[in-house]
Amino acid sequence: MTSMAAEQGTVAETFDSLNPATDDVVGTYPMHTPEDVRAAISRARDAAVWWDALGYAGRGERLRRWKGVLTRRMDELAEVVRAETGKPLGDAQLEAVLAIEHIDWAARNARRVLGRKHRAPGLLLSNNDATVEYQPYGVVGIIGPWNYPVYTPLGSVTYALAAGNAVVFKPSEYTPGVGRWLVEAFAEVVPEHPVLQLITGFGETGDALVRGGVDKIAFTGSAATGKKIMAAAAERLTPVLIEGGGKDPILVDADADVDAAADATVWGAFANAGQTCVGIERAYVHEQVYDEYLARVLEKTKQVRGGADSRAQYGPMTMRSQIEVIRKHIADALARGGRALTGGMEAIGDRCVQPTVLVEVPEDSSAVREETFGPTVTVAKVRDMDEAVAKANDSSYGLGSTVFSRSRGTEIARKLRTGATAINAPLSFAGIASLPFGGLGDSGFGRIHGPEGLREFARPKAIARQRFPAPIPLTSFTRTEKTEQLVSKVMSYLHGRK
Ligand code: NAD
After folding, report:
1. Closest atom, ligand 1, to C-alpha of 146
2. Cα(163) to centroid(ligand 1), Å
3. How do residues 63-106 score in pLDDT, each as one tens digit?
4. Number of Cα atoms under 13 Å in the Cβ half of residue 374
5. Which terminus of the chain has a lower count of CB atoms within 10 Å, N or C?
6. What pLDDT score was predicted for residue 193?
7. pLDDT score for 11
8. Average of pLDDT values for 52-65?
9. What whole-number percentage of the chain has pLDDT above 70?
């Protein structure tokens, strides 16, 4: 995948980005070295000062212009996404639409969420004016995955920029062209300073970014890489946000709209060839509706096909090596008594995997426990929703979940050990810009999107300003025994009563 090419008079190592449907070379990019990365971080330092000084209004105006460029040139962006990931243009457009909504939200809400606010100083220090404001970290390093190369990294990039940081962004080595497109579009509206910079390369380049002296790292990718990043960041106590993988469940209650639940399952499991962090990989279905649900899932699955042509509902696997993981999970499920009602081992092609519905799969098999990241779903019958919740929660991951229930949706959702739950629609939380997005366990920690996403990229700064001398001076060597007795009385009155 690598080759040597002359670049600006020096010989730099490069790598090719390939179209997963054809293996055609889509573009060639530099493999940035630790030295390159440090230089980018150093440029970002100055840019961060300038960007922060623009204030909320100035940054908001630039972000809105960036949003305008993305909206007007969405078709062009969708083509770049399709070329590097293989996904249908409609899916590429959908992720751009969601990203645009997030830019708009972050630009409009940054001041309200992060701006200076008064806090009650309390009785003893009532002579103070207490305020808190959220200041930018400075330079944020952002490392992205390939599966949603617009929506996913922009969930961090947008919020980090709106909070006043400069960003050094390393997209996945599978989608550097999408990363470059986004960064160039930003430079059109912010030409003065390199506020958003691109670095390209593999894991080593990402590692150099983590160790390069940035003020925060935001990572989206697999749990395994997240653990390495956290360990590397520990060297400098660099704070990290980890958006890891998932093994998301759907729970279908006895009173659910079964047809809608089946539709949500088929889309949630197979869209984007299952390469969705919050894709549905497991279904737990009440025994009263299990047969009907399964029949509808199979009926709807017949309409879905993966392929490289424009009529296919999803494309080839973006990362060829994932096909082996899918093969292993299906083989393990079948070897241990599971059955494929559609798909199965024959569904696995050279580039594409066809939809696979597995039933009677033991709960401890890899198809149920590990992230498959392919167009497969396991379906299990449960006695009631308590059993469904227990099984759904028995996972090392905890990213998203979906519940279908007419009467108990919220009650069930609140019991699920995941960062977000969608009720009666698949993945809806991911499209609502005001809601935080993130997980727990192997799905990581920290949040993007919404107010929590803005605060993730800013430090709370507390300021206590004395307005007049304290009536009872406590923090001075002039303090007397009389003062101490007075304090004691005041405290007994305030807090010591039975
Ligand atoms: P990955 O972990 O292989 O790579 C992610 C990024 O990390 C890439 O840019 C890669 O170059 C970089 N990287 C690799 N090794 C590194 C290292 N040692 N130090 C620093 N950077 C390093 O993941 P992927 O295959 O690109 O993405 C798929 C995974 O991402 C899936 O597990 C999916 O669930 C997850 N994902 C999570 C979310 C979320 O929001 N939680 C969103 C999308 C994808």
Report:
1. 26
2. 24
3. 999 999 999 999 999 999 999 999 999 999 999 999 999 999 99
4. 34
5. C
6. 98
7. 57
8. 98
9. 98
In which band, very low, low, confident or very high, does the pLDDT at 123 lie, cut at 50, 70 and 90?
A: confident
Most informative mutation of 147, 325, 370, 437 for ligand 1 (most atoms within 8 A of CB) = 147
The side-by-side arrangement of strands in the sheet containing 248-252 is 339-342, 356-359, 376-382, 280-286, 248-252, 400-404, 420-423
Given 243, 281, 371, 456, the catalytic residue: 243
CATH topology agreement for domains 2-245+449-459 and 248-396+400-431? no
- Ligand 1 atom 41: residue of nearest CA: 243
Residue matched to tokens 């106590």: 237
Let me know: does 250 contact 241? Beta carbons within 8 Å.
no
Note the CATH number of domain 248-396+400-431. Answer: 3.40.309.10
**How far apart are alpha carbons 200 and 29 in whole angstroms?**
7
Q: Would residue 277 show up in a list of annotated catalytic residues for this protein?
A: yes
Mutate-to-test residue for ligand 1 from 1, 148, 157, 172, highest number of ligand atoms within 8 A of CB: 172
| Active-site annotation holder among 277, 281, 352, 370 | 277
Looking at ligand 1, which atom is closest to the CA of residue 319?
Answer: 25
Closest ligand 1 atom to 371 CA: 32
Q: Could you tell me if residue 360 is left (phi over 0), alpha (psi between -120 and 50 degrees) or otherwise beta? A: left
CA-proximal residue: ligand 1, atom 4 (nearest): 221
| Listed residue (100, 102, 168, 159) closest to 134, CA to CA | 159
Q: How many CA atoms lie within 13 A of 437 on its CB side?
A: 27
Give mean pLDDT, residues 303-322.
94
Give the Cβ contact number of residue 394 at 10 Å: 13
Domain coordinates in residue numbering, the chain:
2-245+449-459, 248-396+400-431, 468-495
Measured from the Cα of 221, ligand 1's closest atom is 30
Architecture of domain 2-245+449-459: 3-Layer(aba) Sandwich (3.40)
C-alpha 172 – ligand 1 centre gap (Å):
7
What residues does ligand 1 touch, defined as CB less than 6 Å away? 143-148, 152, 170, 172-173, 202-203, 206-207, 210, 220-222, 225, 228-229, 243-246, 277, 371, 373, 399
pLDDT greater than 80 at residue 7 = no
Residue type, 89: L
Q: How confident is the model at residue 10 (pLDDT cuts 50, 70, 90)?
A: low
pTM beyond 0.90: the answer is yes
Q: What is the pLDDT of residues 332-369, one digit of tens each?
A: 999 999 999 999 999 999 999 999 999 999 999 999 99
Going from the Cα of 15 to the center of ligand 1, the distance in angstroms, rounded, reads 18
